[in-house]
Design goal:
six-stranded antiparallel β-sheet; 398 residues; Glutathione S-transferase Yfyf (Class Pi), Chain A, domain 2
Length: 398
């Protein structure tokens, strides 16, 4: 798996970690205006519940493709009472040099067409054709309290989590998912209207596109899991990383284990053709990468993560994210992704908290962390930028 993206100014053999240097918010959640300049060191955001700490992390999450860490409707993000939409601007440094990324609710969306317009993206002042262009400019992974149910929740949550990990390694992955989903929607629409019988050739063409993109999506996920498993095995028991075993569950992934990618693609295309009647009756496509699942096992206990305690699940998830950051650094010759860690440290005991901070320091990552207890970060033992969050603003504390 290769990390994609064209070179910008300043890329070198040892790529620098991804880091924010400037952040500006306009009418974003509880922030009317915010302007912040930071160094590449980790950032701790402390304050009372509801002060806006997670809102800041959510703003950062819009610097990569997707719907952000809350997956909220774009029109609900605009500050209450504001006229127009919201905007996020950041200068992000990394292996491609320094890029100015701006994103926000488009004018037509702010006027009441949010479902149709979506968000706009500008890169160095030029409007991007797609949010997927962000994938090569900023790489990021996050952990939030809502992800505590990742292992016991629906497979769709684990797929989204895995796909974020894949995108940090392979920026083109998001575009392939979008292409597969677009083709699948076309097929579903034809099947739903009963037009399949008279559009056999059209369906053949759509299913060929689906199979091509599906095989690429499944292969990228499989490569990511294989590489990540290698890092997890090498780091097991070191720092915060426990013994973890990963597996992918899905028909395409099974085929890729047993045959060449082109044969797996042909097999899936044939299965789509044979299942038109069943899919029409169900109202959806019943087989494909949109149904796959990431299975996580706690190694020492030989137990599925969904059966582990809440504390064990938190450590497993944090360990996977840190191992993935290490993997990104290896694959990209040093470009560690941005880490957004919402209320993570507070839920770890002192030993695991020290291991977390030590791992962040060793990685050289710009980790943005939130918490209500400033003392946890003040005693972290690593260089850190600390801010108190309150009243829609930030105050530097260290």
């Amino acid at each position: 798996m290769q990390a994609g993206g064209e070179n910008r100014q300043g890329a070198g053999a040892d790529a620098p970690a991804y880091a924010l240097e400037t952040l500006q918010l306009t009418d974003f959640r509880n922030y009317r205006r915010l302007s912040l300049e930071v160094s590449h060191a980790p950032v701790a955001l402390c304050g009372a519940n509801g002060a806006g700490k997670t809102n800041l992390l959510e703003a950062l999450s819009f610097l990569v493709p997707g719907r952000g860490l809350r997956a909220a409707p774009y029109d609900e993000i605009t500050r209450e009472g504001a006229r127009g939409g919201w905007a996020v601007f950041a200068r992000v440094s990394g292996p491609h040099g320094l890029a100015g990324i701006g994103t926000g609710l488009g004018e037509s969306a702010a006027a009441g067409e949010a479902g149709r317009a979506g968000r706009e993206v500008r890169i160095d002042g030029t409007r991007a054709r797609s949010v997927n262009e962000l994938a090569s400019l900023c790489r990021m992974v996050w952990l939030t309290p809502s992800m505590d149910q990742l292992f016991s929740g629906p497979a769709s949550d684990r797929r989204r989590f895995l796909d974020r990990l894949v995108v940090a390694l392979d920026p083109g992955h998001r575009s392939r998912i979008s292409a597969f989903e677009s083709a699948m929607r076309q097929r579903n629409a034809l099947l739903e209207t009963g037009a399949a019988g008279g559009n056999g050739r059209w369906l053949d063409a759509i299913e060929a596109q689906m199979a091509e993109h599906a095989a690429a999506v499944a292969a990228a996920r499989r490569d990511c899991v294989r590489l990540l498993q290698g890092v997890l095995a090498a780091r097991a028991g070191l720092g915060l990383i426990p013994q973890v075993e990963l597996a992918l569950e899905g028909s395409l992934e099974t085929h890729l284990e047993a045959m060449a990618a082109v044969d797996a693609e042909d097999t899936y295309r044939a299965r789509l053709g044979a299942s038109r009647g069943l899919d029409a009756a169900a109202g959806r496509t019943l087989e494909g990468p949109h149904r796959s699942d990431l299975i996580v096992f706690h190694g020492p206990k030989a137990r599925a993560a969904r059966s582990c305690s809440t504390g064990e699940q938190k450590i497993l998830l944090a360990g996977i994210v840190l191992a993935h950051a290490r993997l990104v650094r290896e694959v990209t010759a040093g470009a560690t992704p941005l880490l957004l860690l919402d209320e993570v440290a507070a839920h770890l005991d002192a030993a695991h908290r020290a291991a977390l901070f030590g791992e962040i320091e060793e990685l050289g990552a710009q980790a943005w962390m939130t918490g209500t207890d400033e003392g946890i970060f003040a005693a972290a033992g690593i260089a850190m930028q600390r801010y108190h969050v309150g009243a829609g603003g930030l105050e530097r504390r260290g």
